[in-house]
Design a protein that fits this description.
There is one protein chain. 75% of the residues lie in helices and 0% in strands. The protein is mainly alpha-helical and 160 residues long. It has a single domain, classed as 23S rRNA-intervening sequence (de novo design (two linked rop proteins), Up-down Bundle). The longest helix has 32 residues.
Length: 160
């Protein structure tokens, strides 16, 4: 059902572009993947800010940087004009999410976070990775149809 709706949306955009109509640019802050990444960053920032100085400056710093990089790469890709540039930065964002999982596992093994917190945040990061993969697949599937048009003309609707 969702795929059929997405296909109809894409066909409508293609028709509008061919007719020379302006296509609405979606705001970065309205993208579900950006909202999810931002929420993960806020959670990490809140927990790390309470750690002792040494832990903050070592493990905490890495956790915050990886979380920040997840959304910063989405933002940078959003600012790129061409589709393939955006896809590259989505790959970077996904890699940062995997790095975030690595640091999260370290914090859990060192007993800096609770099991409940660990499981909850790990699930959010895994969902982020799934959403990034869906977005990459959707955009890559449209590269041939749209050629060198800006990537932001495609909008993938998500459940998140």
């Amino acid at each position: 059902m969702k795929i059929l709706k997405l296909k109809k949306t894409i066909e409508k955009i293609i028709k509008e572009v061919r007719e020379g109509k302006k296509v609405k640019r979606y705001k970065l802050e309205d993208m579900n993947i950006f909202k999810l990444g931002d929420k993960i960053f806020e959670i990490i920032w809140e927990i790390v800010s309470d750690w002792k100085l040494f832990l903050k400056n070592t493990l905490g710093s890495q956790m915050v940087r990886a979380s920040d990089s997840m959304i910063a790469n989405i933002a940078e890709g959003y600012g790129r004009y061409f589709v393939k540039d955006n896809i590259l930065f989505l790959y970077y964002s996904r890699a940062s999410a995997y790095e975030k999982l690595f640091w999260l596992d370290k914090a859990y093994k060192m007993e800096l976070i609770t099991t409940e917190f660990y499981k909850n945040l790990r699930t959010k990061i895994e969902n982020f990775i799934l959403e990034i993969n869906k977005l990459i697949k959707t955009i890559k599937g449209q590269v041939d149809k749209f050629g060198m048009m800006p990537w932001w003309r495609y909008k993938r609707k998500s459940n998140q």
